[in-house]
Design brief:
Blueprint lengths: L1 H15 L4 E10 L3 E3 L10 E10 L5 E8 L4 E7 L8 E7 L11 E9 L1 E11 L6 H28 L4 E3 L4 E4 L4 E3 L4
Antiparallel strand pairs: 1-8, 2-7, 3-6, 3-8, 4-5, 4-7, 9-10, 10-11
Length: 187
């Protein structure tokens, strides 16, 4: 836990020092799938972050923001849905799931996937500053913080919404209120 906090702290301090960061003010609301190109030039970028507001309208809501580079590679910038968040309406600032550390990719477009939700995208910021060991740093950030936090929120939601003695999680495992994991073939 302390290591993950250190790595996240390092990542955010490192990104805050970027000297050639660009910021694009978007201030636009989206309620359906959209792809757009906010980039004025295709120069390689080494970090991309977004800020905005979310409103999830149902249990099946989804918001996903993806950066697409000129080679057609996709990088997850932001994603939320009710299973991984505790609030249906919230703001976020400078989020970068898989785009905190990039290895000099040439951006092409931003794709927004939306199901029964609204995203107000306030801004997109990106940096032209080279980041040494970007791939390794991104892997460390991804595995040390975001994955564990989303897993925690997922299980908090599962046990908060569980009604009755058990909840079927998938086809061959059942999670019971006693926190036992029981293969459904035994039940």
């Amino acid at each position: 836990m302390i290591l993950s906090l250190f790595i996240c702290s390092f990542a955010f301090q490192f990104l805050a020092r970027n000297t050639s960061a660009q910021s694009i003010t978007i201030e636009q609301s989206f309620s359906s799938d959209t792809t757009f190109n906010p980039f004025s030039q295709p120069d390689p970028i080494f970090s991309l972050k977004i800020s905005g507001d979310v409103h999830l309208l149902s249990d099946s809501s989804l918001i996903r923001v993806v950066l697409i580079d000129q080679n057609g590679n996709h990088f997850l910038v932001f994603e939320t849905y009710p299973l991984i968040t505790l609030n249906n309406t919230f703001s976020f600032n400078e989020v970068c799931n898989e785009t905190c550390f990039l290895d000099g990719i040439s951006p092409d477009s931003i794709r927004i996937d939306i199901i029964n939700a609204t995203l107000t995208l306030k801004s997109i910021s990106y940096s032209y500053d080279y980041i040494d060991n970007a791939i390794q740093l991104q892997a460390q950030v991804k595995w040390s913080s975001e994955g564990f936090f989303q897993l925690f929120k997922f299980f908090a939601f599962i046990f908060k919404s569980c009604e009755g003695p058990s909840l079927l999680l998938c086809s061959n495992v059942q999670i019971c209120r006693t926190n036992d994991i029981v293969p459904t073939s035994i039940l």
